[in-house]
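Hello again, I could really use a second opinion on something today. I've been staring at a protein lately and its backbone has me curious. Can you walk me through what the tokens say about the fold? Take your time with it, there's no hurry, and the full record follows here:
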Amino acid sequence: MLVPKLWVPLLVSLVLAAQPSLVSALPTSGESCRVSGRVRVTATSTLRCQPVSGGLRWRQVVSPAARVVLTCSQGGVCKVGDVGTGGGIVFYVALTPFASVGSDCATACHYLEAAPSSSVGEPLRTWATGANQVLVVPGGAARTGIGGGMANTLAIAAQAGNVAESSAATYAFDYVNGGRSDWHLPSRDELDELYFRQSEVGRLAGDYYWSSTEDDSGHAWDQGFIIGFQDFTNKMFLNKVRPIRAS
């Protein structure tokens, strides 16, 4: 039997009315469904057709928790200018891990951060205290490279007689910030990196800063922060101190 064309819209409407699931573009959780495993994405959630109490119903899919991306200060990836885990400013990021013996990161260090400067400015210190200004550091403090500053600092701080009030390295060794106590006086190369990134770090005056690298019994290396010139200077001279740490 042929159905008159005028009746077709009416028949389609009656069929759809009898099957509301066919016209529901955005089903809600709990509504019945027909094909197990089918997924529907709504404006607010993702639903899956699942067996429930002998039938099939749309159930909200529990999505896995979003992956938490740690910031630099939380131990994540760092770039120059970020705040590091010690609350300082990152000024050097290594392409491959480096060692800093005595630092918390040990042989798996990735960056160097400089301590934040206080509002009252940076301290002035001689390189060593009293009689140590004319003595070679026992164990040696002549390391120049990236990662060598901490080992230098440990040797200087262990030299009998050096105190934070008159020894740049001992002051840096005693420094604590951001809950971290593994700060040190930078080696020559570490200090040079700090010079080149001083605009990102901030509050570095155009003055001379001590490194932890010893030259001989009476001299150690420092660096001018105006043109970046490094030179060996008498240990009894007063220079500024900026602690750094590896992480």
Summary: Helices lie at 8-18, 149-158, 168-174, 188-196, 198-201. The chain is about 15% helix and 25% strand.
